[in-house]
Amino acid sequence: MFDIERWQEIFDTIRKNKLRTFLTGLSVASGIFILVILLGFGQGMQNGIAKEFENDASTRFGFWTNSTSKAYKGLNAGRPIQMRNENFDYLENKYGDVLDAKSGVFRVWGALINYKKETGSYRVEGVTPSFQMLENQYMISGRFLNFDDLKGKLKVAVISNKIKNELFKNEEDALNKYVQIAGINFKVVGIYGDPSERDENRIVMPISTAQAVFNGADRVNNMYFTMKPVENFEEAVQQSMAVTDQMKTYLKETHTVAPDDESAIGSFNTLEEAKRFYTLIDNIKLFFWIVGVFTIIAGVVGVSNIMLIVVKERTREIGIRKALGAKPWSIVGMILLEAIFVTTIAGFSGLIFSMGLLEFVGPHIEVDYLLNPSVNFNVALATVFVLIFAGVFAGFFPAWKAANIHTIDALRHE
Amino acid sequence: MIEIRDLHKSYKMGSNSLHVLKGINFSVQEGELVAIMGSSGSGKSTLLNILGMLDELDEGTYSLDGVPIANLNETKAANYRNKFLGFVFQSFNLINYKNAMENVALPLYYQRVGRKERQEKALKYLEQVGLREWADHLPSELSGGQKQRVAIARAMAAEPKVLLADEPTGALDSKTSYEVMDLIQKINDDGNTILVVTHEEDIAHMCKRIVHLKDGVILEDKKVEQVRAQQYVQ
Questions:
Q1: Which chain A residue lies closest to B50 (C-alpha atoms)?
Q2: Model-level pTM?
Q3: Which residue ranges in chain B fall short of pLDDT 50?
Q4: Is the pLDDT of residue A127 over 60?
Q5: Which candidate in A3, A16, A324 is best for mutational testing of the B interface (most B CBs within 10 A)?
Q6: Average pLDDT of A198-203?
Q7: Are the CB atoms for A156 and A202 separated by under 8 Å?
Q8: Averaged over A147-167, what is the pLDDT?
């Protein structure tokens, strides 16, 4: 194997049969290249979708209300449903063991916000302190709402960085300054940022304050929850969906909504959606794998084909070599080593080229649901070896056959 | 050098069996230059192939330089061929992607001679056949006569006990044929044993002994006055 003379002989042959070598190499290199790129894109889609779900807490679920669409227990269809503080308190108590963050939301509509001469129109929402976790908000300065704010119905507000820039144009610091919301002064206690820019259009204050100041009584527009983390993803999905269903049933019962009325109480569950997406990714990845494997099979067939032709083309040469004293095994070795050498070099060039492409171009791809395509190096390496092995396997039989043809028949071969 | 007793060989052609060699007794001494003559189908090439271990005998015994040649497998045959025999073929059988020097060096590769020494030896033998300056040329760039001289150089490079030539002039015009025969005679003059298969009367008479084959038996085996090819080559 490491006989230098033998390798020199092989290099001579390769050097003098450039086209043949090139074609063998090309089919191997392109097979590997396509596989790696496909696998890379599969991973890229997974990354991209995972990123889409980063904006909000990934285990979030929640409820909103609408009008009923069905008559039930003597009540007409079209009756508006309104959630109350007691609903929220009940759910918070009942599912306290499994719930992590929880917040009711009371929305203040059409309030103008002033600071000195600047005016803006933003969403104003009354929330609880754990709303920060639900929205994945991070503090840039100051603090988020706390329980004292909630209990004391304090007139404090947390604004986003974007709002701060718009209202406090020339002022360095917005903390502890007062903004007017619908003419009422609120003290800014914190500036938050949100991973999604869309969500930075929001001023939050304690829900108790919002209800008291803006005539909300005990009305709640939305309720959001997250579950305490569970190790197993499947289990988490199951649990979260079960809790969502139970809560929904409770809300329907207390508000006398028909059990099959889907429009009165709306709900969403991020985990369920995430699960759907992950199943989709799994399917896409499986599809890419199948395509990739078939590409490799095509590569293997290509290599085998070329090996068959090479052996046939070289039958006469094999005869000559045998007449000059070559032993069958040295013939087989010569053909196989050449095949191994070419497929190895080509396989690794395909590998390096495609990995390089993913490495340098991948991070610059800016498409939704596609992020940083990359590939597991070991998987790619394994496919190269599979291809080499397949090439050897495919080449061995014709080589062995050719090496054992009677020399005289090989010499007569045209 | 070569000792053959009661050699039989037949080929299966579908259901028919073709009896090609029907009891050949034949021996060659060292330094002989023997022509094996016969029309096509007389079995002369089959005999040469068996002598060259390119083909197997059915019956009889064959010994080469005192070594009994029997129970050959491909590996063993390859070994004997490499040690004992040099071949010259009608169709030259040079490897087309190797240049003249590399072609001549090839048997030495299978004798495990080092690369440098191989090249030196190859150049030496090319020199002997007068093609030293053609060493870098591919077979496709050589004339028929030149190709055959390269083939002879290749056969000689392994320093074989016996040189077997199967219609060495069959693909050449008469002038080049005489050049090739001149070369073969000179190699024989140096003491090498050579067997030449031919169907051309004039070529046969340039050897020292003619064995006439017909229908698988030796019809005639006589020593002849050698005609030197030199006189035709100017």
A1: A408
A2: 0.67
A3: none
A4: yes
A5: A324
A6: 87
A7: no
A8: 92
Residue A158 in tokens: 């947390």
Architecture in CATH for domain B2-94+161-232: 3-Layer(aba) Sandwich (3.40)
Query: How confident is the model at residue A117, as a pLDDT?
Result: 86
Distance separating alpha carbons of residues A243 and A266, to the nearest angstrom: 14
Q: What is the pLDDT of residue A55?
A: 62
For residue A207, pLDDT beyond 80: yes
Give the distance, in angstroms, between the CA of residue B114 and the centroid of all CA atoms in the same chain: 26
Out of A114-118, A198-202, A404-408, least confident range = A404-408
Q: How far apart are CA B105 and CA B229, in angstroms?
A: 28
Report domain extents, chain B: 2-94+161-232
CA–CA distance, A274 with B226 (Å, rounded to integer): 98
- Does B79 contact A327 at a Cβ distance shorter than 8 Å? yes
Pairing of strands B209-214, B193-198: unpaired
Judge: B78–A322 Cβ closer than 8 Å, yes or no: yes
Chain A residues in contact with B74 by the CB 8 A cut-off are 322, 327-328, 403-404
Contact between residue B161 and residue B193 where contact means Cβ atoms under 8 Å apart: yes
Q: Which residue of A has its CA nearest to B105?
A: A324
From B61, B20, B54, select the one nearest B164 (Cα to Cα).
Answer: B54
Task: Say how many Å lie between the first and final Cα of chain A, rounded.
Answer: 31
By Cβ distance, the residue of A9, A323, A404 closest to B109 is: A9
Nearest CA in chain B to A319: B93
Q: Give the pLDDT confidence of A52-62 residue by residue, as tens digits.
A: 766 666 788 99
